[in-house]
Amino acid sequence: MASSTKLHPTTLVTNIKTCVPIQLDDEGTTTWVTLFKLYFRAHLMDTHILPDDSTKASVSKDSEWQCLDDIVRTWIYDTISPSLLKSIVRPDDSAFDAWTRIENNFQNNKTSHILLFESKFNDISLANFPNVKAYCIELENLATSLNNLGTSISDNRLAL
What is the pTM of this model? Predict the structure, then answer.
C-alpha cells in the first residue's frame, strides 16, 4: 500500500496576485501588508515572516521547510515593484529576511514618507480629479496612509 503525502496548502497556490492584487511600491502601503499577513495566516505560513522565539528555536530547515519558505519569498517578490525588488532581493535569503528588509526600508524612511503624504494631502486639488467622490477617496487614502505611519489627520482637517 502506497503512503499518501499530505500537501501543504501553500504548494497549491498558482498565482499570489489574485489574492494580493496590489503591488507594493516605494511609497508603501499598509493594505499590502494587511493582505499579505491575512494570506500568510490562512496558508499557515505566518511563522515564515513573523516567527516568535519558540518558532525560531524549533524550525528545522529541512527540504520541506525550505521549499515552503522559497514559495513565500516568491510571493513577496512577485507583489512588489521592480525598484523595491532590486533593493531587497538577496540570494539565499529566507522569507523572513526579505520581509524584514522591506519592513526596515519603510521604517528607515518613515519621516520622508510622512512628509511626502502630508505634502500630497496639502497640495491636493479637486481640479485634478474627475469628480468629488474620487477626490474624497484620495483624501481618505492619504489620511489613512498618514495614520498608519503614526500621524493622524483630524476629521475637521479632513472635512476642510
Answer: 0.55
Number of domains in the chain: 2
Is 4 a member of any domain?
no
**Domain residue limits at 68:** 12-108
The tens digit of pLDDT for each residue in 14-30 reads 777 777 777 777 666 66
pLDDT in tens, 88-132: 889 888 889 998 888 887 777 778 878 888 888 888 888 999 999
* DSSP class per residue in the chain: -PPPPPPPGGGG-S-GGGTS-S-B-TT--HHHHHHHHHHHHHTT-HHHHS--HHHHHH----HHHHHHHHHHHHHHHHTB-HHHHHHH--TT--HHHHHHHHHHHHHHTHHHHHHHHHHHHHH--GGGSSSHHHHHHHHHHHHHHHHHTT----HHHHH-
132 and 102 in a common domain: no
Cα distance between residue 10 and residue 43, in whole Å: 6
